Structures are given as structure tokens and as C-alpha cells.
């Protein structure tokens, strides 16, 4: 039995609240159970210096956790004067995941920055960030389309979503919360597109190495979970 009482293939309750931020071109408060992340999208009318005069734009991301997102207060990374390695790794993952479904040439010489700020953490902050950031990006592109800056269907090629899976108490489970994540024998994150393309897989054995069969079971769970998330994204943007 999972600590939450969920079935092995059951996700936590997921919700998306669009237009959460008054000032951002696109925004979404995403909740995966007790993990809550505010994703905002901001447009700049110029690309990074290394992309100028190429006709291409860029999509990037920044990620952070508020001091009381967890049980104990964490110091702000700004106070330390630098970002930690985990923060850098996660924000690069978010950026890669979103660029996988964006036509950068159709975006034009602009940059969109997705800020993913964890308000409350209970496992799966990176997967919630990617899934919610897609909605913030979609709404940002719709904002741009309404100003005749681009056509969304030309820029955004597909959905992208992410989910965690792991081996907990000798069984493969979907969407780990913190209690499971902190004691899982294997922990993996899957990023996939709406059409089933694999963007990235991160998998680590915390103790005993996992087998081909166990990996296949995690992949099956991930595909089902991401299909559910994409369906929820579609429902969210249809409203």
C-alpha cells in the first residue's frame, strides 16, 4: 500500500489555474497534490546575443523554491550569491523540454522566459513545473497572436508534460510524493510530448540497480500518466 493510499498507476490530484498572475503574458498555478508551482511566461522583443540576426528566437526557464516551500526554511539562493547545482539542472531541463515543442524560427527574434517558482513542495516539482509551464507558454503565445505577432499553431508544435515514476516497496508506482521519493529504490522522471515522443528520461537506482523489466514497467506507467496530463492540458486551454 502506498502511503497516500493511491493505486500504483494513480496520480495525485492535478489542477491548472490559468491567468494566475495579473502582469505576465502567460501564467499558470499548477498543483500536483501538495506540490504547487507558479509558472509565468514573459516575452522580450530580442533574442539572446548569440542568436541575433539568425531569424530564430529562444525559450528558456528559471526555477526556484520559496524559503518555506518545504518543512524547514531554506535560505534564498540570492542571499548565497549563486544558484545551487540542483536549481541549474532543473531549469535547464524545463527549458529543453519546452524548446522540444517550439519552432524557434516561427517564434522570430524574441525570447520567452518561463519562471517556475515552487510555492509548496511535496515531490515532483520539476515534473509539475514542466507540465504547468507548457500552459503558461501557450497563453503567452496566444497573447502574442492577439497582437498579430505570430500564429500559435505555427510556433507550438505539440504538448509536452512530465511525470515521475519509481520503485517503492518493491512495486512500480506513478507520480511519487515526497514520502515515496525520499525512500524509493528507484526514482525516474519522464518528459514526453503529446504524440508520445520522448524528450528526456532521468532514472537513478538509489540502492539495487533496476532491471530491464522494471524500467519497462516504469515506462508504461509514465506513458499512461503523461497521456492523462496532456488530456488535462487540452481541457484547461479549451476553457
Describe the protein's topology:
Layout: E1 14-18, E2 26-32, E3 35-44, E4 58-65, H1 77-80, H2 85-99, H3 104-107, E5 111-120, H4 125-145, H5 152-155, E6 160-168, E7 171-174, H6 178-181, E8 186-193, E9 198-205, H7 212-238
Parallel strand pairs: 4-5
Antiparallel strand pairs: 1-2, 2-3, 3-5, 6-7, 6-8, 8-9
Which structural traits does this protein have?
239 residues, alpha+beta, Ribosomal Protein S5, domain 2, five-stranded mixed β-sheet, four-stranded antiparallel β-sheet, 7 helices, 33% helix, 29% strand, globular, tRNA binding
Question: What's a concise summary of this model?
Answer:
It is an enzyme of class 2 (transferase). By secondary structure, the protein is of the alpha+beta class. 33% of the residues lie in helices and 29% in strands.
How would you describe this structure to a colleague?
This protein is an alpha+beta fold. It has one domain: 2-Layer Sandwich (Ribosomal Protein S5, domain 2). Helices cover 33% and strands 29% of the residues. It has helices at 77-80, 85-99, 104-107, 125-145, 152-155, 178-181, 212-238; strands at residues 14-18, 26-32, 35-44, 58-65, 111-120, 160-168, 171-174, 186-193, 198-205. It has a five-stranded mixed beta sheet. A four-stranded antiparallel beta sheet has the order 7-6-8-9, with helices on both faces. β8 (186-193) and β9 (198-205) form a beta hairpin. The longest helix is centred in the C-terminal third of the chain and has 27 residues, at 212-238. The radius of gyration is 18 Å and the shape is globular. The mean pLDDT is 96. Its EC number is 2.7.7.56. Belongs to the RNase PH family. Pfam families: RNase_PH, RNase_PH_C. Residues 10-140, 160-223 form the Exoribonuclease phosphorolytic domain. This is Ribonuclease PH.
Amino acid at each position: 500500500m502506498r502511503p497516500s493510499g493511491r493505486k500504483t498507476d494513480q496520480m495525485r490530484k492535478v489542477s491548472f489555474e490559468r491567468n494566475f498572475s495579473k502582469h505576465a503574458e502567460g501564467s499558470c498555478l499548477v498543483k500536483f497534490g501538495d506540490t504547487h508551482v507558479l509558472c509565468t511566461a514573459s516575452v522580450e522583443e530580442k533574442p539572446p546575443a548569440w542568436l541575433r540576426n539568425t531569424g530564430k528566437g529562444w525559450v528558456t526557464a528559471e526555477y526556484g523554491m520559496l524559503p518555506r516551500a518545504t518543512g524547514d526554511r531554506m535560505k534564498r539562493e540570492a542571499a548565497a550569491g549563486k544558484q545551487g547545482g540542483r536549481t541549474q539542472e532543473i531549469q535547464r531541463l524545463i527549458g529543453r523540454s519546452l524548446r522540444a515543442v517550439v519552432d524557434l524560427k516561427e517564434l522570430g527574434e524574441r525570447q520567452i522566459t518561463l519562471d517556475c517558482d515552487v510555492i509548496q513542495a511535496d515531490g515532483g516539482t520539476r515534473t509539475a513545473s514542466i507540465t504547468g509551464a507548457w500552459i503558461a507558454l501557450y497563453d503567452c503565445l496566444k497573447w502574442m497572436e492577439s497582437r498579430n505577432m505570430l500564429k500559435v499553431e505555427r510556433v507550438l508544435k505539440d504538448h509536452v508534460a512530465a511525470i515521475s515514476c519509481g520503485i517503492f516497496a518493491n512495486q512500480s508506482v506513478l507520480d511519487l510524493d515526497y514520502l515515496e521519493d525520499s525512500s524509493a529504490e528507484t526514482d525516474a522522471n519522464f518528459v514526453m510530448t503529446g504524440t508520445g515522443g520522448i524528450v528526456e528520461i532521468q532514472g537513478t537506482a538509489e540502492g539495487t540497480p533496476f532491471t530491464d523489466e522494471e524500467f519497462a514497467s516504469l515506462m508504461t506507467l509514465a506513458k499512461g500518466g503523461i497521456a492523462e496530463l496532456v488530456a488535462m492540458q487540452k481541457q484547461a486551454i479549451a476553457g
